[in-house]
Amino acid sequence: MVSDKLNIVEVFSSIQGEGEFVGYRQVFVRLAGCNLECDFCDTPSSRTNMIEGKIELTAGKRDFKKVENPISIIDLSNYINNLLMVPHHSVSFTGGEPLCQAEGLAKLLPHIKGCIYLETNGTLPEELELVLPLIHIVSMDIKLPSIIHQEVWRQHRQFLSIANACDTFVKIVVTNKTNGIEFQKAVELVAAIDKKIPLIIQPVTPIYDCEGVTPDMMLLWQEQALMLLTDVRVIPQTHKFMGQL
Ligand code: SF4
Fold first, then answer.
1. In terms of CB atoms within 10 Å, which of 167, 214, 221, 241 comes out highest?
2. What is the pLDDT of residues 84-132, one digit of tens each?
């Protein structure tokens, strides 16, 4: 990958549908590529590089233009800053896993005229160090073994220790297959770094090949987390039922 270019999937203006900043208007920059294979991935087409990406030209108008990948840092920053002519809370770099292209990201971010919000699976700590001075908010997932079929506790611990230097919250997607032991391990991992880090429990959206989490289970997960953390919220993916991208 040439580091002064980036492989993108799409760029558009929308409403943040998940996590602590739900409801805020953001420019979303969806980068291609991912280092994990999660069950219930809601952006499977972002996991590999594509020949073309698409960019919204007018914020919220869905007037997408196709662009060739990889796109130059300068062209991409111009498209993003153009969307920022309409007031937005921040620019969300998402994926895929945006840190798979950390070198290019580190070159792009100084050109962006807005608050930088990173949505990440929290497994690439060395790549995070490369961009952290340029990031304002980190939305970090903790991936439970029942969803990714491997254990990444060490990477998550290292990642969160580094990310905690800026405004960071943690999100955990729970399903009806989540078990209490892995959930407890995730909560203990966060608490060992800082009990005040906000934790968002996100019940899986039951539009995939899975059942939703029962209301009783949501209460149980929240109670379990509140035994160790001070700020624990349950927030589903709201953009799905708002009909937003
Ligand atoms: S980390 Fe995100 S993009 Fe990658 S497989 Fe998991 S859900 Fe999909």
1. 221
2. 999 999 999 999 999 999 999 999 999 999 999 999 999 999 999 999 9
Q: What is the pLDDT of residues 120-167, one digit of tens each?
A: 999 999 999 999 999 999 999 999 999 999 999 999 999 999 999 999
Q: Is there an atom of ligand 1 within 6 Å of 46 CB?
A: yes
Nearest CA to ligand 1 atom 2: 96
- Does ligand 1 lie within 6 Å of residue 33's CB atom? no
CATH of domain 5-237: 3.20.20.70
CA distances to 196, 198, 199, 222, 223 from 230, rounded to whole Å, are 6, 7, 9, 11, 11
pTM for the model = 0.95
Instruction: For 142-174, give one letter per residue: b (16+ CB within 10 A) or e.
Output: bbbbebbeeebeebbbbbbebbbeebbbbbbbb
Q: In this structure, how many other beta carbons lie within 10 angstroms of the beta carbon of residue 45? A: 12
Ordered by start, the domain boundaries in the chain are 5-237
Q: Is 220 in the pocket of ligand 1 (CB under 6 A)?
A: no
CA 87 to CA 141: how far, in whole Å?
A: 27
β-pair partners for 53:
67
Backbone angles phi, psi at 223, to 5 degrees: -60, -45
